[in-house]
Design goal:
The chain is an alpha/beta fold. It is about 35% helix and about 20% strand. The chain is globular, with a radius of gyration of 19 Å. The structure holds 2'-monophosphoadenosine-5'-diphosphate. 2'-monophosphoadenosine-5'-diphosphate binds next to helix 5.
Length: about 270
């Protein structure tokens, strides 16, 4: 039977997920297609009602539905519960399940490092920071801290996840093994060219990870590279969260190199 997949979000804007998953289906001759479905918050309830009658085999979920969609599911994974958000829906027989593949997406490129940093600073305290913190804890990073422009939000996260909270103005005062940007600073549009880190505050032993993937090389990553740091682009997190979704839906491993090539071309 032909299978239907898609992504819901609002406003959906441009998303690379259809290109990625449709390429994967093509690679394996899977009879399926993946579409972009803009669903407004007001329409989420009726959409989620239809999902059980209209045969949708799996869904990617993005902003602003990552939390609210959980009310419509039969089960959520421990990981999604920890993050407090899902980005993937799949069926386990007749049970509609929610997973958060952002966590494994975030972790994957860190697992490829020769040595895992033992300290990490997370910049920002929004939804993305939650998945990053869960990932760092899952990896076993010993010292994890969060810094945010609005200190109260960092403090709340630090208390919930039992990590440290650093003052935003003091974020560059101590050395970190890994610094991860989860703020929109550097993103194409209004934030392009901005960075949450001073160029002269990078040291060569640091790993700089930006979860922003458009542009491919943010100012944060460019400055880090110039300082001799190892850098990880948000494209890797996006790629690996997508590979994990594809695996959940089809049981198949998409060709990682081919998929990366596809995304790199789409972002050029
Ligand atoms: P997401 O869910 O994608 O993580 P978000 O919830 O809007 O997005 O979070 C964005 C984070 O980036 C927030 O922590 C925000 O800080 P505030 O809590 O102070 O709003 C941070 N952020 C946004 N713009 C910023 C800026 N110009 N400088 C520093 N931090 C910024």
């Amino acid at each position: 039977m032909f299978k239907s997949y898609g992504i819901i979000g609002w406003p959906l804007g441009h998303t690379m997920s259809p290109a990625l998953h449709n390429w994967g289906f093509g690679e394996f001759d899977v009879e399926a297609s993946y579409a972009a479905w803009p669903v407004s918050p007001d329409d989420l309830s009726s959409f989620m009602g239809q999902i059980r009658t209209r045969p949708i085999s799996g869904l990617s979920v993005t902003i602003p539905h990552k939390q609210t969609v959980m009310d419509y599911l039969d089960a959520i994974s421990d990981r999604a519960a920890q993050v407090g958000a899902v980005n993937t829906l799949y069926w386990d027989n007749d049970i509609l399940c929610g997973e958060n593949t952002d966590v494994v997406g975030f972790i994957a490129p860190l697992r490829s490092l020769d040595q895992l940093p033992d300290s990490a600073l997370v910049l920002g305290a929004g939804g993305a920071a939650r998945a990053v913190i869960v990932g760092l804890k899952e990896l076993g990073v010993q010292y994890i801290s969060v810094a945010n422009r609005t200190r109260s939000k960092a403090k709340e996260l630090a208390e919930e996840f039992k990590i440290d909270c650093i003052d935003w103005n003091a974020r560059m005062d101590t050395p970190w093994g890994l610094v991860c940007n989860t703020t929109p600073l550097g993103m194409s549009g209004d934030f392009e060219g901005l960075s949450p880190w001073s160029a002269d505050a990078f040291t060569p032993d640091m790993v700089a990870y930006d979860i922003v993937y458009n542009p491919l090389e943010t100012r944060f990553l460019r400055d880090a590279k110039t300082a001799g740091c190892k850098t990880i682009s948000g494209l890797e997190m996006f790629l690996h969260q997508g590979l994990a979704q594809f695996r959940l839906w089809t049981g198949l491993d998409m060709n990682e190199t081919g998929a990366r090539h596809l995304l790199l071309n789409a972002l050029k």
